[in-house]
């Protein structure tokens, strides 16, 4: 859990700090989107791990299911609270357990034939590059505003659509009947909301970048 927080905080603070060094100011929209980019980049790494260790995830899903039955503990919390040797802190095998534990709430992540599994793999391989481009563009405006807006509009719309269809697929398959209401609100709704709420903000910014032709929406 500590390493996850650091993996998100370090790039976010780097982006906010870089803007301050270059321009000497802060902007709330910039801060929110830089935070989201940092979260998305870290989750993209998890999603690559899901692809690389797909067989392992399917095996570990059974392990965590049995462990929850015996201990009564929530696997996701137990995993994130666990200790990992520093030498293994970026091991794909370690982070594949993110999906093995999440599959206790949505079994599609232990089944490579499902929409949830494949859309997250796609996000892991496709969005890091545009995320990094927008991270830099929003921080030091190295791209023409219209170009940044076009890239942002494509990426943010894709995130909104993919996450919305994920929710539809979850409820259409009746998976909500297999978990408690509390777990559904936390792990299905709350954990996926950033990819809609932040993306809606990003889509607004992208439209403004295209329409205005400059970075004034980000305080420049």
Features:
mainly alpha; 10 helices
Structure characterization notes:
The protein is 75% helix and 0% strand. The protein contains ten helices and no strands. Helix 1 packs parallel to helix 7 (128-140) and helix 2 (28-52) runs antiparallel to helix 7 (128-140). It is globular, with a radius of gyration of 19 Å.
Give the overall shape.
globular
Helix share of residues? over 70%
Order of helices and strands: HHHHHHHHHH
Count of discrete alpha- or pi-helical segments spanning 4 or more residues? 10
What proportion strand?
under 5%
Biggest sheet features: none
Whole-number mean pLDDT: 95
Work out the number of β strands.
0
User: What Rg, in angstroms, do the CA atoms define?
Assistant: 19 Å
Low-confidence stretches: none
Structural class computed from helices and strand pairing: mainly alpha
Cα end-to-end separation:
35 Å
> How many domains, in number, for the residues?
1
In short:
The chain is mainly alpha-helical and 220 residues long. Helix content is 75%, strand content 0%. It has helices spanning 2-23, 28-52, 54-71, 75-80, 92-102, 115-126, 128-140, 145-172, 181-190, 194-212.
């Amino acid at each position: 859990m500590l390493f996850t927080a650091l993996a998100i905080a370090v790039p976010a603070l780097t982006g906010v700090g870089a803007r301050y060094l270059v321009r000497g100011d802060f902007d709330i929209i910039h801060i929110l989107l830089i935070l989201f980019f940092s979260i998305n980049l870290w989750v993209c790494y998890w999603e690559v791990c899901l692809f690389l260790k797909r067989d392992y995830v399917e095996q570990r899903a059974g392990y965590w299911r049995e462990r929850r039955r015996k201990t009564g503990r929530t696997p996701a919390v137990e995993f994130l609270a666990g200790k990992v040797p520093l030498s293994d802190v970026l091991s794909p095998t370690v982070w594949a357990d993110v999906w093995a534990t999440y599959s206790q709430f949505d079994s599609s992540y232990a089944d490579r034939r499902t929409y949830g599994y494949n859309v997250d793999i796609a996000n892991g391989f496709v969005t890091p590059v545009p995320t990094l481009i927008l991270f830099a563009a929003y921080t030091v405006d190295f791209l023409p505003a219209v170009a940044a807006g076009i890239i942002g509009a494509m990426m943010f719309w894709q995130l909104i659509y993919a996450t919305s269809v994920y929710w539809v697929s979850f409820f259409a398959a009746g998976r909500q009947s297999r978990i408690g209401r509390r777990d559904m609100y936390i792990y299905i709704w709350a954990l996926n909301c950033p990819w809609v709420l932040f993306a809606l903000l990003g889509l607004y910014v992208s439209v403004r970048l295209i329409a205005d032709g400059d970075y004034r929406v980000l305080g420049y």
